[in-house]
């Protein structure tokens, strides 16, 4: 722990990759494992363009449920520690797979949301993108002013990342001295590929997760525990 703390203190360029595990202590459900199930459906059955085309109401019910949970929660000690780390670091990028907006609410600034944002919507007809914070809609799926169907502004399986965001994430990871990987199962690509990318580019990589991931054994430090406890220890107050 002490060595990892020193690496972070001395680094002038830090990149972070977060996943659902950092929001678990804010009671936002993670995707994988038994608790990732919703009405016996897996994210792989819901977070796809095909699922939305087949049953947009069902997919929207899942998103409406998650939006309701997220609206009631708040950032935890892990999110807040990362916001403090940004303040004391020269160059800092927070690449997140999370769509919940809790990093924004904790005060992080340079956030690269590679899987989008659950509070954004996009019209399938006119392509208009907007922010939509209502929790109750007159109907599901909700409609755009043009009458078209709205979809959540997130990235589903089989869809590409927003090019500008993804390029910035790769650049930050390639340039960093130290990378922190927090609360991600690291199985969803291309996001998971950022971890070996950092190693190949010569960064020290530190992982925090309750469980082992496919990369744990190959990283410089891998800590088993809760993000909300280990991040404050690693980063300090
Ligand atoms: C704690 C904790 C605590 C718990 N403290 N830790 C290469 C190989 C194989 C497949 C592919 C590949 N390249 C692409 C693919 C296909 C696919 C993919 O990766 N499939 C794999 C699952 C096999 N990828 C894609 O389709 C991507 N697009 C793409 O590749 O485009 C190019 C292309 C275009 C067209 C044609 C072909 C290619 C898109 C992926 C989009 C993923 N979207 C989702 C939904 C987002 C919207 C939403 O939220 O609804 O993103 S799926 C879901 O998984 C979500 C997450 O961001 C993502 C990652 O999950 P995450 O965050 O890691 O969560 P969990 O639940 O998996 O893990 C939680 C972890 O936390 C666990 O490890 C716990 O132990 C830990 N934990 N509490 C610390 N307190
Ligand atoms: Zn429209």
Description:
It is a single chain. The protein is of the alpha/beta class and 237 residues long. The chain folds into 2 domains: 2-28 and 75-115 and 161-235, Rossmann fold (3-Layer(aba) Sandwich); 29-72 and 119-154, SIR2/SIRT2 'Small Domain'. 36% of the residues lie in helices and 19% in strands. It has helices at residues 2-10, 21-24, 43-46, 49-54, 56-72, 77-87, 102-106, 163-175, 194-200, 227-235; strands spanning 13-18, 91-96, 111-113, 116-123, 129-131, 150-154, 178-182, 204-209, 221-224. Strands 3-2-1-7-8-9 form a 6-stranded parallel sheet, sandwiched between helices. A 3-stranded antiparallel sheet has the order 5-4-6, covered by helices on one side. β2 (91-96), α7 (102-106) and β3 (111-113) form a beta-alpha-beta unit. α8 runs parallel beside α9. The protein is elongated. Bound molecules: ligand BJW and zinc ion. The site of ligand BJW has 35 residues, from α2 and β8.
What is the CATH-assigned architecture of the largest domain? Answer: 3-Layer(aba) Sandwich
Largest sheet: 6 strands, parallel
Rounded to an integer in angstroms, the radius of gyration calculated over CA atoms is: 18 Å
Total number of domains: 2
Count of DSSP H/I helices: 10
Q: Helical content, roughly?
A: 25-40%
Bound molecules: ligand BJW, zinc ion
- DSSP strand tally: 9
C-alpha end-to-end distance = 16 Å
Question: What attributes characterize this protein structure?
Answer:
single chain, 237 residues, alpha/beta, Rossmann fold, SIR2/SIRT2 'Small Domain', 2 domains, six-stranded parallel beta sheet, three-stranded antiparallel beta sheet, 10 helices, 9 strands, 36% helix, elongated, binds ligand BJW, binds zinc ion
């Amino acid at each position: 722990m002490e060595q990892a703390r020193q690496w972070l203190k001395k680094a002038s360029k830090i990149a972070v990759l977060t996943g659902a595990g950092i929001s678990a202590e804010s009671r936002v459900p993670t995707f994988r494992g038994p608790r990732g199930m919703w009405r016996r459906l897996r994210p792989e059955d819901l977070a796809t363009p095909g699922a939305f085309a087949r049953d947009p109401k069902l997919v929207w019910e899942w998103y409406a449920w998650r939006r309701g949970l997220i609206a009631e929660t708040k950032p935890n000690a892990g999110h807040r520690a990362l916001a403090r780390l940004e303040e004391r670091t020269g160059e800092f990028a927070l690449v997140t797979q999370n769509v919940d907006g809790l990093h924004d609410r904790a005060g992080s600034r340079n956030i690269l949301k590679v899987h989008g944002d659950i509070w954004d919507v996009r019209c399938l007809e006119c392509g208009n993108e907007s922010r939509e914070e209502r929790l109750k809609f007159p109907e599901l799926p909700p409609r755009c002013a043009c009458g078209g169907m709205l979809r959540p502004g997130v990235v589903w399986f089989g869809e590409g990342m927003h090019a500008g965001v993804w390029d910035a994430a790769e650049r930050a990871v390639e340039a960093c001295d130290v990378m922190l990987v927090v609360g991600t199962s690291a199985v969803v690509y291309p996001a998971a590929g950022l971890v070996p990318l950092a190693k190949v580019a010569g960064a020290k990589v530190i992982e925090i997760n309750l469980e082992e991931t496919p990369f744990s054994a190959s990283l410089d430090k891998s800590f088993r525990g809760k993000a909300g406890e280990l991040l404050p220890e690693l980063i300090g107050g």
